[in-house]
Amino acid sequence: MESSILLKTKVSKPMIRNYTIDRPEWIHRVEQGMNFRINMIYAPAGSGKTTLLGQWLYEKKQPYAWLSLDERDNDPRRFWRYMIYSLSCYMIPDLEERLLPLLSNSSMSSITSFIDMFIHELDQLKAPLAMILDDYQFIASSDIHKGLCYLSDYLPPHIHLYISSRQTLPFVHIGKWLVRQQLNIIAAGEMAFSEEEVALLCQHTIGYSLPTEIIHKLVQQTEGWIAGIQLALISFQQDEGQYRFTLDFNGKHRSIADYLFYEVWSGFDEELQSFLLQTSILKRMNAELCDELTGLQDSQCKLHRLQQLTLFLIPLDEDGEWYRYHHLFAEFVQNVLRQSSHTRWISGHQKASQIYIERQWIEEAIDHSLIAHNYEQAAQLIDNHVEEWLSKGELDTLLHWFQLFPADYEFTIALCLIQAFILGIVDRFEESIELLKRCEQRIKALSSSDKYSNYLGILFLVKTNILFASRDFDEWFAFMRSIQQQIPQNSVFFHFNYNKNEPFVRNTAFGLKGLLSQETAHVSAEMIRILHQQHGENSLLVQYVMQAVVEGSYERNDLNTCIYWVQKISKNDNYRIVPGLLVPFRLMTVKLKLKEKQYITARTILENTLQLLEDPQYHNWRKHLYAFIAWIDLLEGDIEKSIHVLDSISITSKQRISLDQSLAFMILSRVLIANKDYNTALEILASIRFFAENEHSTNIECSVIVLQSICTYRKGQVDTAILLLQQAIELVMPFDYVRTFVDEGMVIYILLQKLSHKKHIVNHPQMLKYITKLLNILEAEGKTPLLLSDNHLIEALTPKELDVLKLIRQGHSNQQIADQLGLTIGTIKVYINRIYNKLGVTSRVQALLKSQELELLSGL
Fold it and tell me: Is the Cβ–Cβ distance between 209 and 203 less than 8 Å?
């Protein structure tokens, strides 16, 4: 849908005009910006920001990434998509394949992770790079502002961001950047033209020099504003050198429309005025497009004539084919068109929309249809192509278009349901529910039962999505009881991809971010039953519901149900096609194997899944799989190998933490705990917990708190560990979490035992019952510690630790043990320290005596 031609005009630096004033001081000022992380160029429209940035790039041959912004770039995913394009076109090949999949997640919570990956790609560049965002004044999205602030904070030292805007930028970090001398600001006064520069411009523009006093007055009254100066010079030409323009030209009144209307516009012949009026509605143009719109055959000549005026026409590509009118000039001519003939204004946009439809430039066609008040056409275009925007996650773009329709415009029922669906996804539940009620009333009023049935499938899915998100399950069951007709499939909703980045469906909004309950289990089972009856078992929606049931039943320790649905999913190969299903399904299968300590099988599953996701676009999914491999290495006692695997996917204590990489960072924290680097582990866990709390990700938050409890226990802060474990229990007790605690084994058993004896817990029957259930499951699975003679509970030694202890008994040195087990001597020292900690001893002799007392090596 996106035209490669229009894309090229957004990411190409502007072509240098035939004549530009040499401004070495200003070029040097811009060049100095390469000593700063961020450069902000503030100046009114017509100050020459774009021209001078382009001139600097040409003169200095500076490597760059250029992005020209407009109103439609306010969708965060669209903005960052074009940021990717600006780099992939000239600097980083194949960047789109690696980064674009991260942008289509239905939640913006992962944007920092995407930006982290973006920064990682920038870090791979060796030469200094200027990243230029031109016309940033069009951006009003707070999400884009926040994302750009985050990017600016962590830019590699050889990457320099230039942002040009007509107004000051709304970045909250500006003060911090100034204090740290990371920000360079170039204001309007610094860009003003001097009298010497204006004299040179006069010579080129009108072919002769102006009197010194006229130039002085012109610069004084315009304050060196280049647009005003150029307009004055054009006026001088039209007035045959009368210089009348300088008599009433005042720099305090920079209304370009007034200047053009009174001094310049009236000087154009009628033919050129007509051409300008017709083509002013185009944001980008070439001769062919202008010919189609105007019905003329000489548009190229007219464009060339306008280009000679050096003010009105801005070249957009180095080939000199594509142009745009200067923003202020376009605004002026459009005002003239509207005021002179509203009919021509409407018909011009309608004709433009038809031209764009024929070229399949759908976004431009929709924009012009809306301006032309052809709402039926705009709605039809949106309806025909809505899946494309949904698949890219550009929901803000769709919502923006919906808002441009009149308040009383009645969309088709299908489009109305789509609007309600999107509002629900972006957490605007009240609007979504109100819109859905109106849709239901319209559907019920249909006379034909066939029409009712056609809409019922969409209604069912939209209502389910909203009610799941709003937790109103009673309403959902009431709705289901009212349905008697068959539910047909609909491609938009039955095949909507609900997971673009998360390792588990429970982490997504679709999976309620871990809020399990009997109600959610009941709804899921009922939904699967209904859709199976209606032959929808192969749809993405059903597959996602089944995967959510797998994860939920495992967490509640309903393993029979979990295994049943695992087998159901595995019988249908559809899950293998979509990484958002494949990875969660395989990771859950691995968790079942790890529960039984089947490490070889678990590793084989992960390696097979990696083979299915070899394409570079699956880079982020592969990180989740490698993180699990690192976990298996840790469980098998090979800490060094685990660290190496995490390093290979850039998961280290020095990396910035993001919520959608929480799985990998939690595994890193486990490695750090094993290495006794408790403080670093706690810092990582605190960061993840903060993000999880902000995003209301209950399952991630609980897992983090449990690890915090284990870490503080290892650190010797038992009371703090007990308090943290209590916090985790209080958080998820309403949702009946089990495996998050039980899978951690004996340390949790020890802490639960201690917690259960606390007075406030004894007096809290509900919590005591919950703790007792967890203890019973731990005991049933043999995850209880050894009981020493002094009634002190310790963890049992792992098989690898028993191997080390056996070799210690045989009198081997650390180096000999390392050689026999194929490990480094550093890893062996870690094992020995863990053995000492578990046995409560400080030497080899004490360890052997304690192991003899406990009969740990009997039979070995």
Answer: yes
Q: What is the total residue count of the chain?
A: 860
C-alpha 548/C-alpha 551 separation (Å) is 5
CA distance 790 to 781: 25
User: CA torsion angle for 837, 840, 846, 848 (degrees, to 10)?
Assistant: -70
pLDDT digits (tens, 9 = 90+) for 612-664: 998 877 888 899 999 999 999 998 888 889 999 999 998 999 887 878 789 99
Query: HEC string of 267-314?
Result: HCCHHHHHHHHHHCCCCCECHHHHHHHHCCCCHHHHHHHHHHCCCCEE
**Contacts of range 154-159, beta carbons closer than 8 Å, 24 or more positions apart:** 154/115, 154/116, 154/119, 154/656, 155/37, 155/38, 155/119, 155/122, 156/119, 156/122, 156/123, 156/125, 157/37, 158/125, 158/126, 158/127, 158/128, 158/129, 159/37, 159/122, 159/125, 159/128, 159/129, 159/131
- Residues paired with residue 68 on neighbouring β-strands, in sequence order: 134
CA distances from 156 to 116, 125, 159 (A): 11, 9, 6
Residues 392-411 as b or e (16 or more Cβ within 10 Å = b) = bbbbbbbeebbeebeeeeeb
Q: Evaluate whether 184 touches 36 at the Cβ level (below 8 Å).
A: yes
Strand, coil or helix: 726: helix
Which among 179, 329, 356, 216 is positioned nearest to 268, based on CA atoms?
329
3-state secondary structure of 131: strand
Rounded to the nearest integer, the mean pLDDT of the chain is 82
568 vs 251 pLDDT, higher one: 568
The DSSP code sequence of 561-597 is HHHHHHHHHHTSGGGGT-HHHHHHHHHHHHHHHHHTT
State residue 375's pLDDT score.
95
